[in-house]
Specification:
Elements (H helix, E strand, L loop, with lengths): L1 H22 L9 E2 L10 E14 L17 E16 L2 E12 L21 E18 L4 E4 L8 E4 L2 E9 L21 H4 L14 E10 L2 E9 L16 E13 L2 E17 L1 H11 L9 E16 L4 E10 L13 E10 L9 E10 L2 H8 L18 E13 L2 E11 L10 E11 L1
Antiparallel strand pairs: 1-6, 2-3, 2-19, 3-4, 4-5, 5-8, 6-7, 8-9, 9-10, 10-11, 11-12, 12-13, 13-14, 14-15, 15-16, 16-17, 17-18, 18-19
Amino acid sequence: MAGMAGMLMRCIALMTASLLALHASPSRAIGSTVTDTDTVTEERFVIHGQVTYTEQQDDGFQAPYAGANSLSRDIGRETVDGTLFLGVRLWQGAEFWINPEVDQGFGLDNTLGMAGFPSAEAYKVGKNQPYLRLPRAFVRQVVDTSEEREAVPGAANQFAGSHGLDRWVFTIGKFGVTDIFDANQFAHDARNDFLNWAAVDGGAFDYAADAWGFTVGAAAERYLGSWTLRAGIFDLSTIPNSAHLDPGLHEFQFVDEIEKRYPLFGETGHLRLTVFDSRGRMGLLDQAIALAHATDTIPNVAAVRAYRSRLGGVVGLEQPITDAVAVFARVSKAAGNVEAYEFTDIDRSVELGSSIAGSLWQRPNDSVGVAVIDNGISAEREAYLNLGGLGILVGDGKLPHPGPEEIFETYYSVAPWSWAHVTLDYQWAKNPAYNKDRGPVSIVAVRVHAQF
């Protein structure tokens, strides 16, 4: 902990110095229109950074039995990560970004026990000692196709400057699928808003990723008026839930998205439809069950893997009501007869929530969020788990009384400074891992986040 505290203090000192420099130059509001006579300073090289510390604890919930992937009672864990966002302009409209990161810590039970896992700051791998990794290294090319432009503020992986309202955007390299797809400005960032996996992304969005949530691929986006079309192709991991990607698109995923922006209540709403098709070596759950019955063993979906597809989709909505109050929703569904490949054991998910800015009570940098989530699985997955099969995150050894995993999450984020936030988070989960015999469980968290 002494080493982490030292790293945290050094990062805060660096952020303070950087913020003093940033305050010396004014910036435009996001989305503000600029004209040819306006002067927008374009950065050539930029450094941003962040550090996040999260500590989480569950209670002594009812747990008459447990399996290999069960959530434990009265368990606490912590994670810390620090990231640099280094960017350089290559040529007109082109940027290169690289994000070296240091991570340390574990999620509850090594990120096991709930399909809607309670901390998206925790990965499927963890270490007691800090370790270095490279989640992103990519090139982005923007091609403007209109004269009308809008200002863009500087941020992580985003240069200050401007771009055309109508444009093409191409991204290639290593990054996260959800950096581009299934975005939501109110529920998409575990360092600033909700923590639960099924709150920050569509629960059934089984997006291509390694065990840390990143992949290699390419995406194209077309912004045209109030519409945006997106398409991408990405490497899957070598086997489901692996730390290693399968290079060369031998096992891969297509992702397509259409977004419509519309005016309502004097604000701009967003409606998105995202669909995906994963093509790799995956097992059918009913075949794993049949093999288990024939051999008198516990079902293992890895024993029946063959090359096939898993389809799914997400419908997402974000709607500001005023400049301080917004609502959002996601509905997602994926094929329930095939093993989940990358993300988590969810075949369908519904999420509803609201985000409220602290400007309502004279705390403009504070925020409050509330979300309710309902996760479900197919009859085949229920039978597989009841026979002792293990999923990516869940598996209590048996599942005699299945039920939907229902989650409530709320947080209050207070900003002692504009660049630093302290968040108190509470989650309540009924039927964790779809098991009516266990829970409900309460989970509390404290998150400290600073950025420049």
